[in-house]
Structures are given as C-alpha cells and as structure tokens.
Amino acid sequence: MVEFNFERQLRPPAAHRLFSITDGDTPTILQPVRMVSADTPEKSHYAGKPQVAQPKLDTCRQVLLDGVYPAIPDGMRKYLVDRLDADAAARHIDAAEMASAQFDLLLQQRLTKPDGSQRRVATIPTGEIIDRYGRMLAYLAPWFAGGRGDPLPPRDDPQRRTFNLEMVAGGWAASFVIYPSLPKNDDLNLLLDEARAAWKLRRGAWKKHGRKLLLGYEYRLAIKLGTEHPPAKAMANAFQRVCVDLRTLKSVGLYGWWKVPPPERLWFWATDADQATVDLGLAPA
Fold it and tell me: What is the model's pTM?
C-alpha cells in the first residue's frame, strides 16, 4: 500500500456528453464554460417562470420582514426588501432574456470572419479552472489563427476584447470578480472601468429596469432564502462569499456587500479567507 499525506485538489464528478475519441486516452466532451468576472440575470430555468419564481421571492421578502434570519443586518434586509416587489421576478427574467439575446448577437458578429466563415472561440482558463458544477471557468474571445490570412490584432484593438468584458461594458452583466479567478491587473482595471461606466450611465438592462433590478447573485440569494429549509441551511448556502470594497481594499464580510456599489465589489470564498487576505493585500477591517 502506498500513501501520500497531502491534500488532493479534486472536484466532484460532473456529467458531460461524449462527442468522439481521438485515441485511447483522448476523448472529446461537451464542456460547459462559466464566463468569469461577469454575471447575468437568471432565465426561468433557474427558479421558474415569473408566476412560479415570484412567490419564492415574496416568501423571501416576508421572512426578511419577520426577522427569520437575525444574522442579516438591517441595512441588507432593507436593501433586499426594497427590490423584492411584485414585479421582481418578471423584471429579472426579462433582463435575463435581453442579456441572452445580446450575447447571441455578439457571438454572431464577432465570430464571423470578413469572408463569412466562422471563427473558433478562444478559451482562457482562470486560477480555479473547474467549478463545483463541472464548468470550466474562463474568459472567452474570438480566436485568431495568426499569419497573413488571419493576423492577431494589436492588444488594444477592440477585436481582442473578451465576451466577458463586452457583456459587462454593455450593462447586460454585472461585474463579478472572484478571487482567485482574477484577470491580470491591466485587464482587471479595464473591466472595472467599463463596469463603473455601465452602472453610472445605466446601460443595457439597467436602462430598462433601473437600479431595482436584482443582480444575478442577488436573485439567487433571495431564492435560496425564500425556499431552503431549515434557516441555517438557507443562510449557509446564500452567504458563502466574502465581499471586498475595491475603493478601500477592506473586507465588508459576508453581509456587508449591500453597502458597496456593484462595480466596486470583489469576492472571495469564505474558505479562501486567509490566502485571499495575503494575495489581495487587504487592509485591516
């Protein structure tokens, strides 16, 4: 028997469709990708169509008002309740449909070569390559083959922009930067500048639905608080990430993100707190 006493980095199994095999050790599978640093609203597959999802949000609103979750501070409670009105689900799902349509349009426009043929997609995996759902965490961009027929544009050329960045810049996705899956500093600051402009100018989904629109992760949190039992389980599943205010580089903890404008929020998993504090150079709370 051989035993090595160090922690292995393994992920739970995930189901993928097998397409083909190249040889005895190289299968090709359908690999879902989660575009990092961007978070769009959820379509109806997540919590149901508006008529199904709205009662779940109504329940969340009521339990917040009833004080079922005492760990949630009054400021966050008010922040959520103000957004959980009778149209919250319809507003969120409509924004999701708009974002999906915009992403499809971006793909058509930017993956079509001048001669009408289709480009491949470049995938740029991040620090945490595979998430708990088996999705690759990556940035996506058009693939340029290089050479005379398809030269790679200069670094600052708009054609080099990732789809992640484009969705945030258009106001169709909220910035959602999560340690350790952060882009390099130049790319990170470009993303943040675009996120701030989209928020300030109310681009995309915010143009139609305003600031009451629940962001993707806010919507998922509200659904969990309104549907999961017991309360301790709902809280544990809803609050797993610590928020950092990028304006001060201070942690606002699990329950303080409501005080931080969406473009200024950076996240890390609570389980990564010690290393994230060092790597991000966080100021004392």
Answer: 0.93
